[in-house]
Amino acid sequence: MNSRTRQPELPSLIRQVLHESQAFIDNVFANHWKQLNLNALVRKVGFNKRTGLPVTEVVFLLMVWRWLKVQSIAMFSRQGLDLFSQANKDVMYDLLKRNDLNWQALHGQTAKSVYRQQDVAQHQVRAYVLDDSIQARRGCKMEGVSSHFDHTEGRHVLGHQVLTLGLATEQAFLPLDSQLYVGQSRVQAPQEDFDDQRCVVARRFREATRSSKPEMAANMLKRARRLGLNAEYLLGDAWFGTKTMIRTSQEVAVTAILRMKKNEMKYRFSENGQAIMLTAKELHQRVARLNWRKVNNLPYQAMSIDVQLDVSAKGEPQNWRPVRLVFVRGVADGSKSTVGKKDWALFLSTDTGLSLVKILELYALRWSIEVYFKEAKQHLGLLREQTISFASHTASIHLAAMRYLILVAAMLEDGERRVCDHRSDMEAQLTTLNFAHRLWWLFRALIWETLDTVWPDDLDQALKGNVLDAIDERMTEFFTRSLQLDALSMRLEHGC
Predict the structure, then answer these.
(1) In angstroms, what CA-CA distances link 381 with 67, 392, 414, 427, 453?
(2) Signal peptide: which range, if any (predicted)?
(3) CB 165 within 8 A of CB 176
């Protein structure tokens, strides 16, 4: 009979760490940080830091903290910062508050990297999407907030309004640019004047307070074009259904598909060879309501007419353009016996060659930006840094977009799972590493205490120290390689 005591089997992860020098946990975030070459992009847009932690490492920390499911940078500094760096939270806050850093440029370069690496230009349908979202914020020192009408709540709220331009395809949505818009009422300006009115954040604040949303949107579209982030269509809800946006679409050579308001805007309609000027409501009453037809496979009735619209700015010569108007109304369901007279919507296309069904299919891509805003607010740290400066708010909207772009890159590579699935993976991987790192220090103390107890006094004490050093070295190597922050990985990233 074999009386030897059976050796306990180590858990698989510990066994790999002790016996396989190359073992480490897969880290999707670090993989795509390197793949998108974000270290090089940070330097390309002019980020710099004179002393202390390299600026690329601080940006990495600002990107990664939200994945650990903590509510603020302060909580991250207490619960997970030591896993990634020996820095303290002040280093992160200091970078957020800097007025000379162009986070918008870094955001654009990151979007460009995803666009090129994932070959988005080959996607069959590409459309720019414009939308805004309001984040309620409180605090008498909160810079850049103002009163905005929140149509989801039906009332005015104090907070930040974020205008975003994205690129939507049938496969993915890429946030390309974002900007804070400051309204005219209850504005809370920066606590102190900018030392240099030419700095990046000073210019952004002037644009936020002096430009209209259509003007901001026009600048964002032109920046996207300059970066080579091209699309064929421009989609926007009724807030962007203006002559300004139609003119902008012509300037950047895209087809605008916009939802229009039922206001007093006049359209030139030809009836029996005679041109008459009618509003949307008059066109609906005179033409649309008499010619509804069912849209195949959709719970809608619709009809389209071609009209002309003067898109000239005030004080300029008339500029009549042919446009196609699509009137849509829902079909009565179990809750309503008939469709109400006001239950209709109006869409406009600057391409009169698009069919009614094609216009509605393209406009449906606009929903992807709503999904982005929901993900950014709930999971990606949009305006969640618990700071008050306008500079940090500006940084926050771009950091959230860059986190989403990393998820999009992972999704397009995978080809099967959704953005939220990859976000859950990243959170699980980094949370597991953080927990393992914190738990290791408890195990380390127990190992030291156990060795002190069982190690014979007549054995070489230096050997005991070597054993502990070897364990420390192996665990440090494991965490470093799992985070992919080791020198070898960094050299490979830059092709050195």
Answers:
(1) 9, 12, 24, 13, 47
(2) none
(3) yes
Closest CA to 321 of 349, 340, 283: 349
Taking residue 38's Cβ as centre, other Cβ atoms within 10 Å add up to 22
Tell me, what DSSP letter sits at residue 271? E
Task: Give the pLDDT mean for 15-29.
Answer: 47
Residue ranges of domains in the chain: 24-97+420-471+482-493, 103-415
CATH architecture of 103-415: Alpha-Beta Complex (3.90)
How far, in Å, CA of 252 to CA of 146, rounded? 31
Contact 388, 141 (CB under 8 A): yes
Single pTM value for the model: 0.81
Angstrom distance (rounded) from CA 93 to CA 72: 11
- Give residue-wise pLDDT tens across range 406-436: 999 988 988 777 877 767 776 666 666 665 6
CA pair distance 184, 208, nearest whole angstrom: 11
Q: How far apart are CA 27 and CA 428, in angstroms?
A: 10
pLDDT tens-digit map of 91-129: 999 999 999 999 999 999 999 999 999 999 999 999 999
The CA distance from 160 to 181, in Å, is: 7
